[in-house]
Write a structure and sequence with these properties.
The protein has one domain. Helices cover 79% and strands 0% of the residues. The protein has four helices and no strands. The two termini are 15 Å apart. Keywords: Kinase, Transferase. GO terms for molecular function: kinase activity. This is Histidine kinase.
């Protein structure tokens, strides 16, 4: 396994963990302000590994932008849940799931492109 495969696996795991933390918000788990910020493990990955090794990749720009959108969506979901808008928060999670699928799809494309070269 080369370094890029390890990098992509780390990114995939961190993203899935992010989505798990979002889902936990729907079950009343406390909101971790730092986790849903530019200090989250996923944001740090983009600022370090992503920028150092994959700065020229168009997919990394898409993934970083999509991650920022996911953070924004997670914060909105938390506000809805906190305001008692439980059904709306569950609907918002469906949108986050779609964004997540898009994230993973772009990551898969990037991984295939870079491992074939």
């Amino acid at each position: 396994m080369d370094i890029s495969q390890i990098d992509f696996q780390q990114l995939r795991v961190k993203h899935i963990y992010f989505k798990t933390k979002v889902r936990a918000l729907l079950y009343g788990v406390g909101f971790d302000e730092q986790f849903f910020s530019d200090k989250s493990p996923l944001s740090v990955w983009f600022d370090t590994t992503g920028k150092q090794r994959y700065a020229g990749s168009p997919e990394i720009i898409q993934l970083a932008r999509l991650h920022q959108e996911l953070i924004f969506s997670a914060r909105a979901l938390h506000r809805q849940y906190s305001n008692g808008e439980i059904e709306q928060a569950h609907e918002a999670f469906k949108s986050i799931n779609q964004q997540s699928e898009r994230f993973l799809s772009i990551l898969d494309q990037m991984e295939q492109r870079l491992t074939l070269t």
